[in-house]
Design brief:
Blueprint lengths: L12 H12 L5 H18 L22
Helix pairs in contact: 1-2
Amino acid sequence: MEKETTTPRPVCAPEALALLNCTAENPYDRDKCLSLLDALRECIAQKKVKKFSLAEASSTNTTEAPKSK
């Protein structure tokens, strides 16, 4: 059985985080976010990323999205 390994620093993390933060900004700047999306796509192509995954949430998280009902 093969074991999946995780990298200490996720590939394209700065680009992904910048895009996520851009989409959360108010007011939303679509042009800025599209530019950041292009940067993330370029990083993904350069690093040949096939799939992303999220780690389990830790108890040190300071903000959470409100739970929908």
